[in-house]
Amino acid sequence: MENRQIKIIPMGDMNAVYIINNERQVSFSIVPASFGEPKWEKGGADPLVQISASGDASIIGFAAGMTRHNSALTMSMKYVSMDVKESEKDICVITYLENDEGLKAEHFVSFSKGSRAVCVYSKVSNDTGEPVMIEALSSICLSGITPYADDEATGRLVLHRFRSRWSAEGRHTADPIEDLMLEPSWARFGVRCEKFGTVGSMPIRGFFPFAAVEDKAASVMWGMALACSSSWQIEAVRIDENLSISAGLADYEYGHWRKNLQPGDSFITPQCFLTVCSSDFDMLCDRLLDGQRHNLSDRQKVQELPLFFNEYCTTWGEPSEENIDRILDVIAGRGYEYFVIDAGWYADEVCGWQDNMGDWNVAKNLFPNGLRPVVEKINRAGMKAGIWFELEVVGKDSSALTDYAAHLLTRDGKIIVSGTRRFWDMRSKWVSEYLTAKVIDLLRDNGFEYIKIDYNDTIGIGCDGSDSPGEGLRQCMEATKQFFSKIRQQVPGIAIEICSSGGHRLEPSFMALADYLSFSDAHEEKEIPVIAADLQRLILPSKSQIWSVLRKEDEPQRIVYSICAGMYGALCISGDVYDLSKEQWDLTDKGTTFYKKASGVIANGVTERFGPFQTSNRKLCGYQAGVRYGSDGRVLVIVHSFEHEGAQEVSIPLKDDCDIFDIYETGDHKVRIAGRELKMVFEESFDAVAILLR
């Protein structure tokens, strides 16, 4: 067995591990500091920076077209030095690599003391004197999984992922490594690779940029979340006894990305958050959320959550001064803090509102006095006013489509068309100035304190204007995020909600720019509590805005069902508000009052889930319970009953002795505490109850 140099850097309750072999290739892993002696002797090197360029050789074993993992260029990058920088608050480890031709790489691992996750990324610099066309570059390569087995760990490794579809975001899957055919071959020849990701400008369309590997026998889990707003990929790769997981921008073969580095140029990858812990999936996910918590601004570190009203499911795209007056007459004084005017305020009298985005002219027939008087009415009713934009797109019925076509994205010289939308080139100075006048000036001039930024289609593989379609896409997404930051800079105090057909932009770099995030478009469906609870593993609940849409025909239990679902995040009410009866409003007000009491637990807590896994979102069975333990000692329990026959008794274990502080329900669910169990009974399907304990 070859000699290896092992460097271990403590980072909180984790140890970062660097293994340097005789060939000066460096691998990276991380393990819990409290676990026994890991075995690093087995398997070959999986270097910590995975890189490939045009003309590069793929690893032997049928890898070409499947993976660039351990390419010839990767294996040529040799260890130069390591720099460990430590302050009172942070640790940063930089590993320097270089090959004989002068291509250099830096691998960064940063850790904020008190956090439970590290941040990893890479930088490559071209000092070769010649252009280098990079076609694959990882943000992270985590290798040596699992160091707690002498062999290939048959039957004990599981790959955890979150799949995503429109109105079905965040579905957890757990696949044994053997089911994915990631066992090494008898000859340790033939690369095994499970590559997954998303291509386009909706980075959550298909999968979340998340992966976790569980060693069931050792009770250890590794998890990562990639902060990438354009096309991305994650690869689980197996050649020998060890499994490795790499993540980063989608490569040239998968996501049409390549970057031409001229002599003297450098490129930095997206960040990836990484953690390791004992085998508790909910805890692993909460530890990864520390990456998001670290990026919270002071104003986002809230102890209580606001109550929202959005008029979209009330007016269905026909907001007007008259309609808003009617709504304000009903909801004023009920504790709402934000009133959001959604799509349609710019509607064309002939073509309507769905396809004239891009002009952003206030519809005079809807708002004859302009928007400012409406904002002032909302303010007088005790609320802050918000407004909807889909600012990156140009609809087929807009004047901008013909007037400013030169500023639209193209691919192969042709304007990119996706459904009824075209797309601004957000890299353009002209576009930035145009949108500044249309969006930022409108917000500031009319006194808006909230903007909902929607995005309802994708540009696909990418666009012209750079070294590759994928690099053009990446540049456009970076320019979009820069414009979001510009909004915040030029409209002080503005709250930003990011929406993309519900939840198609729920990745860490977009989420860092947002105060609130649209969790899904499943606004009126029975699966809302399932999606909302799933997403607590991926989004900070203090940012996850969940709609409760109320209809005049709703029975009491349906109102409670909807409002309880909204308590998995920041609650937003919409629907037939001026048609609800007094009894319906009394039940709604009771729910929003309960939400305000519980919002501190929602904002700052850790959730455990109970109930059977729902194999179908469209045919829910049994029940679901979320138990959120707040940092203040209180506990919020949300229980939804799904399809069942007869009385359904639910018993939920509690970690501590508790008393019942408050209950939100309709009817009597016989809620009681017996020892350290919370018990209740559901007589009806699709009912709910929320309980606050202390």
Detailed description of the structure:
The chain has 14 helices and 40 strands. Strand 34 and strand 35 form a beta hairpin. The mean pLDDT is 96. The chain has 694 residues and is of the alpha+beta class. It has three domains: 5-294, Beta-galactosidase, Chain A, domain 5 (Distorted Sandwich); 305-518, TIM Barrel, CATH 3.20.20.70; 623-693, Immunoglobulin-like, CATH 2.60.40. It is 19% helix and 34% strand. The longest helix is centred in the C-terminal third of the chain and has 22 residues, at 469-490. The strands form eight sheets. Strands 5, 6, 7, 8, 10, 11, 13, 14, 15, 19 and 20 form an eleven-stranded antiparallel β-sheet that branches.
Structural descriptors:
eight-stranded parallel barrel; TIM Barrel; 3 domains; Immunoglobulin-like; 694 residues; globular; Beta-galactosidase, Chain A, domain 5; alpha+beta; eleven-stranded antiparallel β-sheet
What count of domains describes the coordinates?
Answer: 3
Q: Rough shape?
A: globular
Oligomer: single chain
Q: Please tally the β strands and state the result.
A: 40
What Rg is obtained from the alpha carbons, in whole angstroms?
Answer: 26 Å
Per CATH, the superfamily of the largest domain is: alpha-galactosidase from lactobacil brevis
CATH class of the largest domain: Mainly Beta
In the CATH hierarchy, the third-tier topology of the largest domain is known as Beta-galactosidase, Chain A, domain 5
What is the second-level CATH architecture of the largest domain? Distorted Sandwich
Main beta-sheet annotation: 11 strands, antiparallel
Terminus-to-terminus distance: 57 Å
β-sheet strand percentage: 25-35%
Number of helices: 14
State the helicity in percent bands. Answer: 10-25%
**SS content category:** alpha+beta
Rounded average pLDDT: 96
* Low-pLDDT segments: none
